[in-house]
Design brief:
The chain is α/β, with parallel strands linked by helices. It is built from 10 helices and 12 strands. Helix 3 runs parallel beside helix 4 and helix 5 (148-162) packs across helix 7. The longest helix is centred in the last third of the chain and has 19 residues, at 292-310.
């Protein structure tokens, strides 16, 4: 662990508290600050996490506080906003959560202008775009978790069908973290072998067709919400992983949401592409090698997000 790392988590609901807990357990930070409009909730979560610190691998201080207490954070994680309800899409949350973020940004940036801002709040691509537009911060400091969660869900499903570890699945989800996410199947491999061929050569294994898998990935969060009321475990692990890559300057290439500047002709929209993530935040976007149909799907996802963004007051 890098001692002296301070991470502030804005929002102490189920996602925010799970993120703080995962960061603490994994020893990513030495100080964690939880901020929430419901101060008793934040205090209770902080105490609950902190009381396990004596048996964690690394010492950590966990407190609840105000925005001023987030001063000099190395990373600020946004989990603020209304949570999705059963049957609700991420984009249904858009304007309300945009307004919340707009009101909070000035309060946070003035205390930690050099922090990396990790965006979990939904709709994550819209919120990432909003922070970039209103914060005055360099775009590299703002990182949307985007399709990293979708990618983890996809790899889990394929790995279950292939009866291998999901770490052996190499395939990302790009575009919107939501209804227009796309999968570049031409790039997917298992043990270095094309995924489709892998299953063709092993008829004893069964995998759903591409359309079914894409639908499953797009609807994965909604399914969990319908079953248990919320999603927070997987997203907390994904968020902690992003924080860890920043803290340790990993230079990891991950499908994260960031601003497009001409990639495949896409402009002024945030969506997930393979990003090099390190101590400086998003250092660059690697243009993925995709076929023409896949590029069209990605552009369609960008167009859909731009249409939504244009309808909002940002």
């Amino acid at each position: 662990m890098n001692r002296g790392v301070k991470i502030s988590v804005l929002g102490a609901g189920r996602v925010g508290s799970a993120v703080a807990h995962t960061i603490a357990v994994q020893g990513i930070a030495s100080e964690i600050v939880l901020v929430d409009i419901f101060k008793d909730k934040a205090e209770g979560e902080a105490i609950d996490i902190r009381q396990g610190a004596s048996v964690m691998d690394m010492p950590v201080t966990v407190t609840a506080g105000e925005y001023a207490d987030t001063a000099d954070s190395d990373i600020v994680v946004f989990t603020l906003g209304a949570a999705r309800k059963p049957g609700q899409t991420r984009l249904d949350l858009a304007q309300g959560n945009v307004e919340i973020i707009k009101s909070v940004i000035p309060e946070v940036v003035k205390y930690s202008p050099d922090a990396k801002y990790v965006v979990v709040s939904n709709p994550v691509d819209i919120i990432t775009y909003t922070i970039m537009k209103v914060s005055g911060l360099p775009e590299s400091q703002i990182i949307g978790t985007g399709c990293l969660l979708d990618t983890a869900r996809l790899r889990d499903e394929i790995a279950t069908c292939a009866k291998v570890s999901p770490k052996n699945i190499h395939l990302n989800v790009y575009g919107e973290h939501g209804a227009t996410a796309m999968i570049p199947w031409s790039r997917g491999t298992i043990y270095g072998e094309n995924i489709d061929k892998y299953f063709e050569d092993r008829p004893e294994l069964h995998i759903p067709d591409h359309d079914t898998l894409l639908a499953n990935v797009r609807g994965a969060g909604g399914k969990v919400i319908a079953l248990k009321g919320a999603t927070f475990y997987a997203v907390s692990v994904v968020t902690a992983y992003v924080c860890n890559c920043i803290v340790h300057d990993a230079k990891a290439v991950l499908p994260l949401s960031t601003m497009m500047h001409g990639e495949f002709g896409m402009e002024d929209v945030c969506l997930s592409m393979p990003c090099v993530l390190g101590a400086r935040g998003v250092e660059k976007v690697n243009l993925p090698n995709m076929n023409e149909d896949e590029i069209r799907e990605l552009i369609a996802s960008a167009d859909s997000l731009k249409e939504i963004t244009a309808s909002l007051q940002i």
